[in-house]
Structures are given as C-alpha cells and as structure tokens.
Design a protein that fits this description.
alpha/beta, 10 helices, 2 domains, 22% strand, Rossmann fold, 326 residues
C-alpha cells in the first residue's frame, strides 16, 4: 500500500472567546485522517461542523492549536501559515474556493488571476507564465477570448473555471475543493463537477472534496469522512459507507437522499462546541439510539466489523480495534 500523500494526526483548532473564564470554541477537535496519492476523499457534515476550518488548516491558511499535518513526509503544521506561504511545498497544495465571485480579484483579468500563482509560486517569467495560462485555460475549457475579461464580465460557470485554472496553474499534487459548485446554478453545477472529475483522473490529482451534496460525494470520491461538531464520526470507502452506514448521524444524513429509505429526523439541541465535556458523546443530545453509556463515555473511532476500511465512533457499531487514523 502506498504511503499517504497527506497524513493528519490528532489535529485541533480552538478559538478563544471573549469570556472571563477563558472559554474556547473547539472548531476542529482531535481529527485524524489520511489521503493516498491519486485518491479522492469526501468530507461531509452539517453546516457548522468544522469542515471549512479543517480544510483551511490543511491548506495552511490557518494555524493549528495541536496536531500534525504530514504532507509528502514533512510536518507542515510545524510552520506558521505565514511562513508556509513562502515554502517550497506551497505550490503543491492548492484550493478551489466555494464562491468563485468572492475569491477572484475584481481588478484582475482572468489571465492575470491565473498567472499570479505562476509568478509567485512557480517562479516563472512573463513569457513562461503566459504559456502556462494558455495551457491550463485549455485544460479547464476556458476560451482564449475570455482571458482578457474581468470577473464582472464572466458568467458563474466561467468564473468557476478561472478559479479552477488558478489552482491548477502551479501544478499541485493535492487539490482541496471547498464546495466548489455551491454558488452555481444547478444547470452549471453538473458541468463543473464533470470537469473536476475529468481533471482529477487526467492529471492524477489527489483531492479533498467538501460538499453538502451527498450524491455528488458518492459519485466523485473513493472514500468519505463524516464530521460532526469538530470530530470525524465515521469514515470508509464511499460505496460501503453509503450502503451500510454504521453511525446514527451518518444514517440520518443519508436518509435525506431521495430513495435512500425512510427519513430520519433528528430532534434535540446540538451540543455546544464551547468547551465540550470529554466524557460524553457529542451526538448524544440528538441521537435516536442514545443510551446511558453515551452520557458517561465518549466513543472512539473503531474499525467496523465486516466493513473493510470502515470506522465509526459509536458504541452501537460492531467494532474491532480502536483507530486514530481512519
């Protein structure tokens, strides 16, 4: 088995709150995961579960409170985000943001936007950067005549292609996709998703795909990780997790897909991410199968019996050996 391109070990990010008792918001709490070269990992969960904070930690746009981010054998979490911006590994990790309009500089043409990382990260001169822009624009299906336009002169789909081209320009190994089609019309989403899937296969990219659309995750990823209140509660091969989910939260998420069985409606209040108790299951306040053990012992990720590569943090899941790195 190939060594992971990205190995995340017990990663946490806490935000201090203005409080006399020094309260902290645990946005990402003790997360471990890995992505193999050429693999696509999906990350799913409700809004506010910590997905965006996690991907910004992995893209090194945000510093971790604790833990390791090992990329191609190097612990990049040891470097402050500002220092990593000038690191030799910076071009190899790129990100496509959620809203293409907000992520593009309105004063830059499409060509300038795509060329900027070539100059800043790739060290290319003007001629080489120009040639690279033409190459990557062709890869994403962006006509040459659109390269001289500013963002306000482009459609949503065209702006999305510019954002993808900008991320591909420095030839990354890991591409982080933070809900890349969420701001697009439904008719455009499918086209952009097909483009991303084709590029991943043709360029041999390793991708982390964040999305609320579970059907998209099922189709475009090899494995999936389910996040709840800052923690990974289930992970495994996408097809396996979708067909036989082991965690009650995963089951509830999947029940929202039409034709995926009766809808499971979660009741109760979401637990607070502010200084959460260590010995309580975070899903206990909403879980339809909660029992006494959930209120006195937090479950850990364990291999699910009969599920090859599947892990779940639930006392009810048929479990094997504890695991910290799903």
């Amino acid at each position: 088995m190939a060594e992971p391109l990205l190995q995340v070990e017990r990663l946490s990010r806490r935000f201090a709150l203005p409080s006399p008792r020094g309260a902290q918001l645990h946005a990402v709490d003790d997360v471990s995961l890995h992505i193999a070269p050429g693999e696509s990992l999906g990350l799913v969960g409700e809004s506010g579960c910590g997905k965006s904070t996690l991907v910004r930690l992995l893209a090194r746009l945000l510093d971790a409170s604790e833990g390791r981010i090992v990329f191609d054998g190097q612990d990049i979490a040891a470097l402050p985000a500002a220092a990593f911006a000038r690191h030799v590994l910076r071009p190899r990790i790129q990100m496509v943001f959620q809203d293409p309009t907000d992520s593009l500089n309105p004063r830059f043409t499409a060509r300038d936007t795509i060329a900027e990382p070539c100059r800043l990260l790739g060290g290319l001169d003007a001629a080489a950067a120009h040639a690279r822009v033409d190459e990557v624009a062709q890869q994403v299906g962006l006509p040459p005549e659109l390269l001289s336009r500013f963002p306000h002169q482009l459609s949503g789909g065209q702006k999305a292609r510019v954002g993808i081209a900008r991320a591909l320009a420095p030839r990354p190994q890991l591409l982080i996709l933070d809900e890349p089609t969420a701001a697009l019309d439904v008719s455009v989403q499918a086209v952009v998703l097909q483009l991303l899937d084709r590029l991943r296969r043709e360029l041999g990219l390793t991708t982390l795909f964040v999305s609320h659309d579970l059907n998209v995750v099922r189709l475009l990823t090899d494995r999936v990780a389910v996040m709840y209140l800052g923690r990974i509660v289930e992970s495994g091969p996408s097809r396996q997790v979708f067909e036989a989910p082991a965690h009650p939260y995963t089951k509830a998420l999947l029940s929202a897909i039409p034709g995926h069985g009766p809808r499971i409606r979660l009741v109760g209040e979401v637990s607070s991410p502010i200084d959460p108790p260590a010995q309580v299951c975070r899903f206990a306040s909403r879980c339809p199968a909660v029992h006494d053990r959930c209120q006195r012992e937090a479950p850990v990720l364990r291999a699910v019996a009969g599920g090859v590569g599947q892990h779940a943090a639930c006392h009810l899941a048929p479990a094997g050996v504890p695991s910290s790195a799903p």
